[in-house]
Amino acid sequence: MDILKTLFLGVIQGLTEFLPVSSSGHLIIIETFMGGGSEAEGSSAMFLEIALHVATGIAVLFVFRKDIINIIRGCFSKDGFERKGALFYSSWVILATIPAALAGVLFNDQIDALFDTSKGNTAAYIASLMLFVTAALLIFSSKHSGINANNVKTTGINIGGLTVVKALLIGVTQAIAIMPGISRSGSTIAVALILGVSREEAGRFSFMLALPAIFGAALLDARHINSIQSVLTPSLAVGFIASFVVGIVALKFLLTFIKRGKLYYFGYYCAAAAIVSLVCLTFIH
Questions:
Q1: 179 near 227, Cβ under 8 Å?
Q2: Which phi and psi angles does 7 have, rounded to 5°?
Q3: Looking at residue 156, what is its pLDDT?
Q4: Cα-flanking dihedrals φ and ψ of residue 159, to 5°?
Q5: How many CA atoms lie within 13 A of 179 on its CB side?
Q6: Please, where are the H alpha helices in 19-163?
Q7: Distance (Å, rounded) from C-alpha 37 to C-alpha 45?
Q8: What is the mean pLDDT of residues 150-165?
Q9: How many domains is the chain partitioned into structurally?
Q10: Distance between alpha carbon 261 and the CA centroid of its chain, in Å?
Q11: pLDDT 10s digits, 245-273
Q12: Among candidates 216, 157, 168, which has minimal Cα distance to 192?
């Protein structure tokens, strides 16, 4: 895989992993129009996909490093109130991760089939249709912009309007968002807003959930790689760096949009992208 292609895919991954437009959906559609995936690419293609996702995972760690450090410190704090809040929050992240983890393990083969671009345009058609689901969630959530975090009492069981039940529902949403075309960030943030979680917390909790989702999926896929040494190339490094840097910019950009309650802009984009993709797949490709 040449450097220009990995650079392009790295930029696309960095942008769409965090912007609520579905990175998997975009990559599948783009790969289809670029000729589709090839089974012969084997470990090289698989490792590139893993590397790009890990890069965006590291971008999340970088942007939310202070929050993560505060949560870890809070779990060991001598202050009972602070420790209780941190422990509850950590448990909610773990609980909300379980649905997606179960779906990934139990339906791994079926999920892989949804992402297979080597056997025609089916995967691209599915991704395009699911973009409409993302669009609907984002536009609908604009009418439920979440509560103001400043008006919410923060306790060990209610942080920014977030509760254990809401965390679980957001986790179920993340499991459904495994499907290509349904944005993980967009759907989880939208559902959090609809449930009455503050804008700030909706964004933070969504990306806290992204960490186990990204690194867990990477570990699950890594078992299919035969030789790591053979795929460590300069083009891979270029894609990794591009995904990391662009991911940081995209994540900060999205957080600004969340605070302003402007997520519906991305909903209109997803709807337009779905229409263009379906038209091209049907009449051109």
A1: no
A2: -65, -45
A3: 43
A4: -120, 110
A5: 16
A6: 23-33, 42-63, 65-75, 80-106, 108-114, 122-141
A7: 8
A8: 62
A9: 1
A10: 19
A11: 999 999 999 999 888 888 899 999 999 99
A12: 168
